[in-house]
Amino acid sequence: MSDRPVSQEKSLDPLGGWPMLGMQALLFLGVIALFALGGGQLDHGDRAVGATFMISAVLMLVISLFHLNGFFIVDPNQARVLVLFGRYRGTVRQDGFFWTNPFTSKRKLSLRAHNLDGSKLKVNDLLGNPIEISAVVVWRVQDTARASFDVEDYEEYVHVQSEAALRHMATKYPYDDLQAEGAEITLRGSTDEVAEELEKELTGRLKEAGIEVIEARLNHLAYAQEIASAMLQRQQAGAIIAARALIVEGAVSMVEDALDQLARKNVVTLDEDRKAMLVGNLLVVLCGQESVKPMLNTGPGGM
């Protein structure tokens, strides 16, 4: 950003609208009275005086109608930015009925919280994988002067800068830790950290427009369509390997317990070959996915 004066909001306390409305009523009564007096003078043949009253009544009517342009209303959680002849006079945040110089322009700004549901963006993560990502940003106007004078369209500014911040953040981290082992922060696994980082970056970008970021979170995250199938298979393979490792670990523990109990209770005495055969059979039973077919030992030389 170039060095230039930054607008600063200042509070303005305008005149109350109800007293000025009473003055407006008096102006209209004066118009009626002048018209009546002018008509009376014309009826009596005094055209000069009658014309003077009529002209005065028309001028007062024009003034009273122009006077109406000074009234304005501020709703709750809204503000009015007042500009007189190209000069910023101040901002009215207090809700109510007010009056100001009729030449003053009165721009309405909402101070309510806004939701920006961003569109899905296709970007590359830290490892270059194409992903789809979008975010929801909750924001509101904090400085009405900056929002009015320092950017062209503050709502469009929020939209564009939100997309830019999201794209920049997505390139800083991997999608998950399958391809980046040991990564401390990933888009998929570190939702709180990612949201905090996105909110921090948006706050810095939108400060120029006087916008406060209340919350920013990802609401969509997925691999791009062209690699989604391959990455799904990779995730499934990883899940299968992890499940198999857990099954084998449990089976080995059960075999150790079985051999220990057989030896401790003297149920049967097994030599090393029989132990090896028993261990193999137990592991097949515990780790296999198909139903087991029993085999009976019919003698010393067979099963």
Could you describe the 3D structure shown?
The strands form three sheets. Strands 7, 8, 9 and 10 form a four-stranded antiparallel sheet that branches. Strands 1-5-2 form a three-stranded antiparallel sheet, covered by helices on one side. The mean pLDDT is 83. It folds into three domains: 15-109, no CATH class; 114-223, Band 7 domain (Tetrahydropterin Synthase, Chain A, 2-Layer Sandwich); 230-287, no CATH class. It has helices at residues 17-43, 47-67, 144-149, 154-170, 191-206, 225-264, 272-287; strands spanning 15-16, 71-74, 78-84, 87-92, 96-99, 105-110, 114-117, 121-124, 130-141, 211-223. By secondary structure, it is α+β, with helices and mostly antiparallel strands. It has seven helices and ten strands. Strand 8 and strand 9 (130-141) form a beta hairpin. 17% of the residues are buried.
